[in-house]
Design goal:
The complex is a heterodimer of chains A (1078) and B (397).
Chain A lengths: L8 E5 L11 H15 L3 E5 L15 E3 L5 H11 L3 E3 L4 H13 L2 H4 L3 E2 L4 H8 L1 H10 L7 E4 L2 H10 L4 E5 L9 E3 L2 H14 L5 E5 L5 E9 L5 E9 L12 E3 L6 H18 L4 E9 L6 E7 L4 H10 L3 H9 L26 E7 L20 E7 L2 H11 L23 H9 L5 H10 L4 H8 L3 H20 L7 H9 L4 H7 L4 H10 L5 E4 L13 E5 L14 E5 L10 H16 L3 E6 L14 E4 L4 H11 L3 E3 L5 H4 L2 H6 L9 H8 L1 H11 L6 E4 L2 H11 L3 E5 L9 E3 L2 H14 L5 E5 L5 E9 L4 E12 L9 E3 L6 H17 L4 E10 L2 E8 L6 H8 L3 H9 L4 H4 L10 E7 L20 E7 L2 H11 L9 E5 L5 H13 L3 E4 L1 H9 L4 E3 L10 H6 L3 E6 L9 H12 L3 E2 L2 H16 L7 H4 L4
Parallel strand pairs in A: 1-2, 1-4, 2-3, 4-5, 18-21, 19-20, 19-22, 20-21, 34-35, 34-37, 35-36, 37-38
Antiparallel strand pairs in A: 6-9, 7-8, 7-9, 10-11, 10-13, 11-12, 12-15, 13-14, 15-16, 17-18, 23-26, 24-25, 24-26, 27-28, 27-30, 28-29, 29-32, 30-31, 32-33
Chain B lengths: L19 E6 L4 E8 L3 E9 L5 H5 L7 E5 L3 E2 L18 E4 L1 E2 L12 H7 L3 E4 L3 H11 L2 E7 L8 H10 L9 H4 L5 E3 L20 E6 L4 H9 L3 E6 L4 H5 L5 E4 L10 H12 L4 E4 L1 H9 L4 E17 L5 E12 L9 E7 L5 E6 L4 E4 L14 H14 L1
Parallel strand pairs in B: 3-4, 4-6, 5-7, 6-8, 11-12, 11-13, 13-14, 14-19
Antiparallel strand pairs in B: 1-2, 1-9, 2-8, 3-9, 10-12, 15-16, 15-17, 17-18, 18-19
Helix pairs in contact in B: 8-9
Classes of the chains: A alpha/beta (1078), B alpha/beta (397).
Chain lengths: 1078, 397
């Protein structure tokens, strides 16, 4: 069937900000979809609030709306653009939810918009538990047995049908709390009684426990002619009980016989047909009882998912692109397989390697939360690796994590070395409980002599995975015996590399530095071969150059000899502080240099990203971003230039090692990068230029730190050197806190000293992005932070252009930026952070690299800064590129962060110098208040238009809150406050209701929150910690999803937003219209 | 464009001589690896199979007689072996080549590790070689004769002699391998889908109908599928004549899969012609399809490296829908040599447009090149057993 010609304009909805559970995979899928459909001649309208995405680049869609993904805003877009169809299956749950709401409210029908890919009925059938269960029963498939009960007697009757162990889950509790597993009758009775009490509707579900079962996923595609193919099977290393997003997963499935695999395949086909997904991709999860082989369906996602991105990268099959084409009527046999060119997309990829995904977590940012992995996803990113064997892929994946791990053991974190050897009790406990460390404890267990059977019975991890790990662990002693390094021969070296051991590990085993191992290895001729990912196990010739390294005889590297090669180092796994923004910049570098005729080569380990799409660059190498792996590539490919300044801290940390190895780094020199990063050199430069910076010192010991702090005067800002995202950064007000801090900081970065700065209280922070070519420095954007100094720049909202700073100050900031760029001989991007206090401009930090704000600025000013910078790095001049002066914008752009607090119950949501946001949104409008309102709404902070607002501020804020409160009163809100704030407000003639603090009596403020009587909280903290009164209030706000603002500046901005929204409703405008003159 | 190749000898692994094994191709290429399974020598045509699961079904498929199979998926043996997932009582292939054998299998049905299974059946294996490099070579130069050798007594192997033996290996072309795998006696077949994993796949639409299966090296799952479809099944030796087949008074006849080249199987071609003459419904699978094609006057050719895997897309020309099929063949019938007035092409391979299925326009006969019984592979084409029953019913009326 050819494509549909009754459609002209298609609306695609993105997934909004990066949050836990929805990351850059939807930028990848959305971008693919936009490109695929435009290629077919459709006009594409896009809505997404996330400026750091490639999909919101103005050239990806015809009409790009950076607007909140809420029904009101999307409805306005529909009204304005009148699309023929809405494709909701490529923007994660966010897009699906908003599409369903627009369907239910009649908006789609009113404007004649057809939902393509999946209809509202299909979405309901897949997502409504009862409907789904009925559908599965219809086709003879089982779900885990479960029944709802309201009494203990009923529960006991159910227990007779569903054998113990059972999972008891109370219905309607906050944050899914109160679930328990019962292994005996006593436990069962207790869990049911407790659950019934906890449930708001006095109901629990008694479920068959499938904890410990094997977990699988199949990625399925279907077209209009009912052709169905399975793109990839995935097996979870962590058995049922851990969210699949938090599990280590492996492709293809490893432990299924063909009979079992085909049964699962048949089931998947029946599921997609029964649920009725007409076209596109779905992800279906299954669990199998390892003792009997019984199979149950867990769930299905009627859309492209995180697993689809993984499956695409694991096989080379572009699921999102194909899904988009199927949605407009093509059938699978009509579409080509890009990789083989000859064969159709209607086939099932076969792979000849093993793929391992490991999630990356950020528990260190949420120290009060429980690090146990559960069915609630908590990871913030992931890495994927490819090896010829699971063993090799596993060790590669571990070192891809960039978590100071270089394999299963024999690195600085290996507890078998040194004096922290874990005891057997600890080992057993840590194997039985899934955490991020379990993988390493399995090795400890093997070292301690536990058998695969014992480890299996403690962890339920399939013995196949364990015995593969055991082969690695067993090899360790043999490898150590082969040392010292000089006596290792070629075959021994090769065997070790084939098991995935890194040079770092081998260095420790053979008591030699990593680089000596490297030299010896190369001398012995043991270098990796690069093999192709080709969807077909080499059955057909592959044309798409997508590679991974392994230690095998035959190497398949191809490159053209008539083009200069530029290697772009990516940013690795998403983490807090280093996310999609850097991938965005890397992708732009690839696009820009391709335009100039270079051969672009991308290196990255993150399967969610656009950068690891095989058609983003000319060559893609799916590799860990470690010194060893990157040097290997450089030696094999001899690039003419390597770009390290776009991938965040990851490639920057490699810069000096690469330079020492003679690799040509283009852009700002590593020497100058070092001048900006090294505290001493930085101070010298600031002095030389006659600029201001907060007074500071560097301490290696506590006594020294104390001395410096006393000299500078408290408060001081303390942090370890060379970190990103404000890791372990803190504002310290006294000696005692300083002492407590030292331990943590040393832990954060072992080989680096602690930096101590005078903290400029109440200063205004400013971020500047600029690009320089050696002749000229052009300011990209100047952003004024809304929150005052002391809150990490990644966690503050910021406004472009500045909204309160005087022209003189902004001009000073410009001049300082230019002076710094000239001094550092910047070639490419530079970011400077300033603090303004008492009309003085202080330089806080200079980063001669792409910053987190580059995509935001690019969209705000309508100039692709990263692209321009990449061209500058290969020698183009800004004048040639037509970017010679700062863009003056007549609109206002606001960037607002998004936080993952709801996933980490127990951690306080107060903002500080340690970054904790996972993503960001943009609001763009003609005035500040409206831009702010859009940003807040897009960030999920539903701004109330009426109702009660609870105000409670610390003493030093009491004077300034009066104005805000007055404004809220004028806007028609009712105010509620506890005694202190109440007193101040009522004395100033503001109508305010008093409410009890927690210990003053009932009903207190928590009761009000629980009953959802409060629609907004303004609470500036006087103390931190979840244990305080304030902590409980903020915790409850997170649980109830009530917007909670913790800074006065933020509150003031929000009030501004509310005022704008009340003045006139939503209006939307495409990015192309804002920048039509450029 | 530039393609670097390092010699395969260059990175030979340090292995005890007792465990050393070599794979020597007819063109002189040598792959060094470790021995597994039976120690000794094996000669055959090397083909690659791209299925990621189902190695036990592949090992026991009689169609691999005369061939050495290399699996493109690197981990083989993960789920061990069991007594149920077999296509015949024992392996028939000549040798087995894998990247890595799993020595600790994991599956609730596993009864033995692959290593022990192969040893027990005296199948020579080699592991630890770059199977992707081997596959690429076969793709570029075509399936090739080869030797696998491992030394049972620790003596080192004579590479030159092995090269000569590989070069002197008898070609599959023109050889009758059917006689080596077919049964000697006629017997009924009663086993259906006893395995609960596949129990509900077929409806008993063939109840009351008798099918004679001519065994050219039949896969058990064809027989199980017939039984699961309700047919009464009688299996006769491959050398059976049409008369002896028809003596069982069958409602339908199935020409089974089998190894090698169909051209020398004149007795089988004659048998097919005899059945066609009597207008008894006929269904051919794989080699059976080629035999029917020959009986209908088509020409057979040897493919470069054939189709061996579980992901071959085939378009059903009558429905326009695509089936993902299980395949294993190195010879094929040329669609252009079929008489379009007599024969309709029903199935086409989407990768290379080769003939995958045909139906006679007048006579009650049809055949497919792929394996509707799967095992290993997808169940997309199981409907053909139902169509066989329907064809028989139509003829009976």
């Amino acid at each position: 069937m050819p494509k549909r010609d009754d459609l002209e304009k298609i609306l695609i909805v993105g997934s909004g900000p990066i949050v836990i559970g929805q990351a850059c995979e939807f930028d990848y899928s959305g971008t693919q979809a936009c490109k695929a459909l435009r290629e077919e001649g459709y006009e594409i309208v896009l809505v997404n609030s996330n400026p750091a995405t490639i999909m919101t680049d103005p050239e990806i869609a015809d009409r790009t709306y950076i607007e909140p993904i809420v029904p009101e805003a999307v409805a306005r877009v529909i009204e304005r653009e009148r699309p023929d169809a809405l494709l909701p299956t490529l923007g994660g749950q966010t897009a699906l939810n908003v599409a369903v709401k627009l369907h239910e409210s009649g908006v789609l029908e009113k404007f004649g918009v057809e939902m393509i890919g999946a209809s509202a009925a299909v979405i309901h059938k897949a997502e409504d538990r009862e409907q789904f269960k009925r559908a599965m029963t219809n086709i003879g498939l089982e779900l885990p047995r479960a029944e709802f009960v309201r009494t203990l007697e009923d529960a006991n009757r159910v227990r007779d049908r569903i054998a113990l162990p059972c999972v008891i889950r109370p219905s309607f509790t906050l944050g899914g709390t109160g679930g328990a597993i019962a292994y005996n009758v006593d436990e069962f009775q207790r869990a049911v009684s407790k659950g019934l009490a906890l449930s708001m509707i006095h109901e629990v579900s008694v479920e068959e426990s499938i904890y410990g079962w094997k977990e699988f996923e199949l990625e399925v595609m279907r077209d209009r002619r009912d052709n169905v193919v399975i793109v990839c099977s995935i097996e979870n290393f962590d058995p049922m009980g851990v969210h699949t997003g938090d599990s280590i997963t492996v492709a293809p499935a490893q432990t299924l016989t063909d009979k079992e695999y085909q049964r699962m395949r048949d089931a998947a086909m029946r599921v997609i047909r029964e649920v009725g997904v007409e076209t596109g991709g779905s992800n279906i999860q299954f669990a199998i009882d390892p003792r009997t082989g019984r199979m149950v369906v867990i769930e299905m996602n009627p859309r492209v998912s995180r697993s689809s991105a993984l499956a695409s990268k694991a096989t080379g099959f572009p699921i999102a692109k194909i899904a988009a084409k199927l949605a407009v009527g093509y059938t699978l046999d009509e579409l080509r397989n890009d990789i083989t060119r000859e064969t159709p997309a209607c086939f099932e990829p076969t792979i000849d390697y093993a793929v391992v995904k490991i999630p990356r977590f950020a528990f260190e940012k949420f120290p009060d939360s429980d690090p146990t992995l559960t069915i609630q996803m908590k990871s913030v990113g992931e890495v994927m690796s490819i090896g010829r064997t699971f063993k090799e892929a596993l060790q590669k994946a571990i070192r891809s994590l960039e978590a100071q791990r270089f394999g299963l053991g024999w690195d600085s974190k290996d507890r078998m070395q040194g004096d922290r050897v874990p005891a057997l009790d600890e080992i057993r406990e840590r194997i039985a409980t899934p955490t991020t460390e379990r993988l390493y404890f399995i090795r400890y267990a093997m070292k301690a002599g536990l058998s695969v059977e014992e480890i299996h019975s403690l962890s339920q991890i399939d013995p196949w995975f364990l015995s593969q790990m055991q082969e690695v662990v067993c090899a360790e002693d043999e490898i150590v015996r082969q040392g010292p390094l000089e006596s290792v021969d070629k075959e021994q070296m090769l065997q070790a590399k084939r098991l995935g051991f890194s040079d770092v590990q081998l260095g420790r085993m053979w008591k030699s530095p990593e680089l000596h191992v490297r030299q010896r290895r190369i001398q012995l001729g043991v270098v990796p071969a690069y093999k192709l990912v080709d969807t077909c196990g080499a059955e057909f010739e592959a044309f798409t150059p997508y590679y991974y390294s392994t230690y095998e005889p035959e190497d398949e590297v191809r490159f053209s000899h008539d083009k200069k090669r530029i290697l772009i180092l990516g940013s690795g796994p998403n983490r807090i502080g280093q996310g999609i923004e850097f991938d965005y910049c890397c992708v732009h570098a690839a696009y820009a240099l391709r335009e100039l005729g270079y051969e672009t080569i991308m290196v990255n380990s993150n399967p969610e990203t656009v950068s690891t799409d095989y058609d983003t660059s000319d060559r893609l190498y799916f590799e860990p971003l470690t010194r060893e792996d990157v040097l290997n590539l450089c030696e094999r490919l001899h690039p003419d230039g390597v770009i390290v300044q776009f991938g965040g801290q990851t490639p920057l940390n490699l810069a000096s090692a690469l330079e020492e190895a003679g690799v040509p780094i283009i852009g700002t020199s590593p020497e100058n990068i070092d001048r900006a990063e090294d505290r001493r050199l930085f101070n010298d430069m600031i002095q030389k230029l006659g600029l201001l910076q907060p007074e500071s010192g560097t301490a290696h010991r506590f006594e020294e730190a104390q001395e410096i702090a006393n000299k500078l005067g408290y408060p001081v800002l303390v942090r370890p050197s060379f970190v990103l995202g404000g890791r372990a950064m803190e504002i310290v007000y006294d000696n005692r806190t300083l002492e407590r801090y030292i331990g943590a900081a040393v832990e954060a970065s072992p080989e680096r000293p602690i930096l101590i700065d005078k903290f400029l209280e109440d200063a205004i922070e400013v971020d500047v992005d600029a690009v320089a070519d050696g002749e000229r420095v052009v300011i990209g954007g100047i952003m004024e932070h809304i929150e005052k100094a002391g809150i990490h720049s990644g966690d503050s909202s910021c406004v472009l252009p500045p909204y309160t700073l005087s022209d003189r100050l902004v001009d000073d900031i410009r001049k300082v930026t230019v002076a710094l760029a000239v001094e550092l001989q910047v070639r490419g991007l530079m970011n400077v952070q300033f603090a303004v206090k008492n009309e003085q401009v202080y330089v806080l930090e200079v980063n001669p690299r792409a910053s987190r704000t580059v995509p935001f600025v690019s969209k705000a000013i309508g100039v692709p800064l990263a692209k321009i910078a990449a061209k500058v790095m290969v020698g183009r001049k800004l004048a040639e590129l037509g970017f010679t002066k700062e863009v003056e914008v007549s609109h206002v752009s606001v960037k607002t962060p998004v936080f993952p607090f709801s996933k980490f119950p127990g951690s306080d949501i107060v903002l500080g110098p340690e970054m904790r946001s996972t993503g960001e949104v943009m609001g763009i409008e003609t005035d500040f208040g409206f831009a702010m309102a859009k940003a807040l709404v897009a960030a999920g902070q539903a701004l109330p238009m009426s109702g009660k607002i609870f105000v409670s501020v610390k003493d030093s804020d009491k004077r300034d809150v009066i104005f805000i409160a007055k404004k809220l009163e004028d806007l028609g809100f009712d105010l509620v406050a506890t005694s202190g704030t109440h007193k101040v407000l009522s004395r100033n003639g503001i109508r305010v209701e008093r409410v009890f603090k927690l210990k003053e009596g009932r009903p207190n403020v928590l009761d009000l929150l629980t009953n959802r009587e409060i629609s907004l909280i303004i609470n500036t903290p006087s103390g931190r910690g979840a244990m305080t009164d304030e902590g409980s209030i903020r915790g409850m706000a997170v649980l109830q999803g009530i917007p909670c603002i913790t800074t006065l500046a933020g509150a003031s901005a929000a009030v501004n937003g509310i005022e704008s929204l009340k003045r006139r409703g939503y209006d939307v405008r495409a990015l192309q219209d804002y920048h039509s003159r450029t | 464009m530039h393609l670097r190749r390092t010699g395969t000898n260059e990175v030979a692994e340090r292995i005890g001589v007792a465990d050393e094994a070599l794979l020597v191709l007819r063109d002189g290429t040598v792959f060094r690896g470790r021995a597994f399974g039976h120690r000794g020598e094996a000669v055959g045509e090397v083909v690659f199979n791209t299925a990621m699961t189902g190695y036990q079904e592949i090992l026991t498929d009689p169609s691999y007689k005369g061939q050495i199979v290399t699996m493109t998926y690197p981990h083989i043996g993960n789920y061990g072996t069991n007594a149920e997932d077999v296509e015949s009582p024992r392996p028939h292939l000549e040798g087995f080549v894998v990247r890595e054998v799993s020595r600790s299998p994991s599956n609730f049905r596993a009864t033995a590790a692959l290593e022990d299974y192969l040893r027990g059946h005296r199948v020579v294996g080699i592991e630890g070689i770059d199977t992707r490099a081997l596959t690429t070579r076969l793709r570029e130069r075509g399936a090739m004769d080869a030797m696998i050798a491992s030394s049972p007594d620790g003596k080192s192997l004579d590479v030159e002699r092995l090269k000569q033996s590989a070069a002197a290996a008898p070609s599959l072309v023109g050889r009758d391998l059917v006689r080596e795998v077919t049964r000697r006696e006629t017997s009924p077949w009663v086993e259906g889908y006893s395995n609960p994993l596949v129990a509900d796949l077929l409806e008993p639409v063939g109840r009351g109908l008798r099918v004679v299966v001519v065994d050219y090296g039949v896969k058990a799952n064809i027989l199980r599928s017939l039984v699961a479809s309700g047919f009464e099944v009688i299996v006769v030796p491959g050398e059976s004549t049409a008369a002896s087949v028809l003596a069982h008074d069958p409602d339908g006849v199935l020409l089974s899969n089998g190894p090698g080249d169909p051209e020398p199987l004149t007795y089988a071609i004659d048998c097919a012609k005899g059945i066609l003459d009597r207008e008894v419904p006929l269904f051919g699978i794989c080699l059976g399809h080629q035999i029917l094609s020959l009986a209908l006057g088509a020409k057979i050719y040897k493919m470069k490296f054939g189709h061996h895997g579980a992901n071959q897309p085939v378009r059903n020309e009558r429905t326009g829908r695509v089936e993902i099929t299980s395949q294993n063949h190195g010879f094929a019938a040329n669609a252009k040599t079929l008489d379009p007035d007599e024969v309709e092409v029903t199935h086409v391979n989407l990768n290379d447009q080769t003939l995958e299925g045909l139906r006679h326009k007048r006579l009650p006969a049809f055949s497919v090149q792929f394996h509707p019984e799967a095992s290993p592979g997808p169940h997309d084409s199981l409907y053909l057993f139902r169509e066989f029953a329907e064809l028989i019913q139509r003829v009976k009326r």
